[in-house]
Amino acid sequence: MAEQPMLKFVNIERDMPEKRPPNLRRTDFNEIYAEYADAKAKEQSSRCSQCGVPYCQSHCPLHNNIPDWLRLTAEGRLQEAYEVSQATNTFPEICGRICPQDRLCEGNCVIEQSGHGTVTIGSVEKYITDTAWEEGWVQPIKPGRERPESVGIIGAGPGGLAAADVLRRAGVQVTVYDRYDRAGGLLTYGIPGFKLEKDVVMRRNDQLAQGGVNFELNCNVGVDISFADIRDRHDAVIIATGVYKTREIQAPGSGVPGLERAIDFLTASNRKSFGDAVEDFDSGRLNASGKKVVVIGGGDTAMDCVRTSIRQGATSVKCLYRRDRANMPGSQREVANAEEEGVVFEWLSAPKGFVGDPVTGVMVQKMRLGQPDATGRQAPELIEGSDYVEEADLVIMALGFEPEDLPSLWGEADLPVNRWGTIKADYVSGQTALDGVYAVGDIVRGASLVVWAIKDGRDCAEAILKRLDQGATAVAAE
User: Where does residue 221 rank: exposed (0-12), middle (13-18), buried (19+ CB within 10 A)?
Assistant: First the structure.
């Protein structure tokens, strides 16, 4: 097999230092693996020990056959490696970029556990799929036969798109309804472009559209079309809306200008990267340039906000989290990236209120970790008399997401939800108590990982295909 060409992308931090924001430090962490050459992929893949118990595979939600495609990569058989990789993963190049591998496959690599450094599984996964696109190995969606049944999918995020891919390849007629003007959900508008280049997401959207998936964008279910109408149009419906309602801080000073939701801040930044006119960004409201920024939260969304703020030219960026570093829910790799870039973390710190109108500071109260709760996690406790004010021109709230009240928004009182507002559904098939209605991803799990949404979408699509086949068999027997 001929040597594969080296992938070459422009990396501003490396190749164009004159365009790097002045407070963005040079870093060894290259989150988009801009020049992951064939030789490096082979070198890393050859480090795989082909152990008898592949913990990397068992700790991947999709149970990707990681050892086999690493072996094929090491042997220079990249096309076969890609085919093995995509057999279980609808979007391997996306997972290779944004999965928290340090908590999943790489963190459970036997070589990592033995202290010799993990095989860089995510970067190899990204590399072989990027190569597959460049070499034309990624095949268009061409069903062997068209089926008369149709499925409606509400939500064009990773769960919905994964289900659409599986169903369309089987010949099912698929329509995806989404409130935004571009498909992709958080892949498009929530995750920053320095972690997930938007042309990568748009390429997959285009593949689905060219393969016959119908997208009804700018379509707000409950406003532009009713949930009942969608059910009437289709043989089955998948709810894949995700969770977008931001958890709010109830504290003195809440509601003043300068306090912004993480989703609004990230969406504005991503829209600008598409060249959209974004009034709230241009006015400075959702733009960190020249500001002292404080981000409240400790998850991956908070890391996206602090790192985006650095790139926008903030004069300082601090992250407040009420627990310590070891108990932070976000990726430790992301924390390290942020620190390399100049973000300051204030551990064991929680907001008590806000100063100024517009905001000029955050009233911070210091915490300590107390006795473990029933799950074994230590609960934060206040340290009396430790309050201080952290100066801020922009405060971004990244406290996580909750589900919207879908039964009320959609006028569907029978839609089964639990006390947290997420939809009650079978964790394998996604089936709900409503006939022909399924649900996948965060709207079932709560805020979770993209890779789990992909798995849910694929599993649900397979369950629907089984149901449709059983229905067709029953009709044929009559």
Answer: buried
Angle 408-409-413 from CA coordinates, rounded to 5°: 35
Site of tokens 């990244």: 398
Q: What is the 3-state secondary structure (H, E, C) of the chain?
A: CCCCCCCCCCCHHHHCHHHCCCCCCCCCCCCCCCCCCHHHHHHHHHCCCCCCCCHHHHCCCCCCCHHHHHHHHHCCCHHHHHHHHHCCCCCHHHHHHHCCCCCCCHHHCHHHHCCCCCCCHHHHHHHHHHHHHHHCCCCCCCCCCCCCCEEEEECCCHHHHHHHHHHHHCCCEEEEECCCCCCCCHHHHCCCCCCCCHHHHHHHHHHHHHCCCEEECCCCECCCECHHHHHHHCCEEEECCCCCEECCCCCCCCCCCCEEEHHHHHHHHHHHHCCCCCHHHHCCCCCCCCCEEEEECCCHHHHHHHHHHHHHCCCEEEEECCCCHHHCCCCHHHHHHHHHCCCEEECCEEEEEEECCCCCEEEEEEEEEEEECCCCCEEEEECCCCCEEEECCEEEECCCEECCCHHHHCCCCCCCECCCCCECCCCCCCECCCCCEEECCHHHHCCCCHHHHHHHHHHHHHHHHHHHHHHHHHHHHC
CA distance 393 to 292: 5
Q: Which amino acid is at 13?
A: E
> Is-cis flag, bond preceding 351, omega within 30?
no
131-to-1, 82, 199, 204, 413 alpha-carbon distances in Å: 14, 9, 15, 15, 48
CA contacts within 13 A on the Cβ side of 210? 9
Q: How many residues does the chain have?
A: 478
C-alpha span between 443 and 438 (Å, rounded)? 11
Q: Map tokens 């798995």 to a residue.
A: 455
Separation of alpha carbons 185 and 195, rounded Å: 15
pTM: 0.89
Of residues 301, 294, 311, 307, the one with CA closest to residue 359: 294
For the segment 325-377, what is each residue's pLDDT rounded down to a tens digit?
988 888 888 999 999 999 999 999 999 999 999 999 999 999 999 988 888 88
Please write the tens of the pLDDT for every residue from 422-459.
999 998 999 999 999 999 999 999 999 999 999 999 99
Scan for tokens 């998850």, then name that residue: 299
**Owner of token pair 């406790």:** 381
How far apart CA 16 and CA 71 sit, in angstroms, is 35
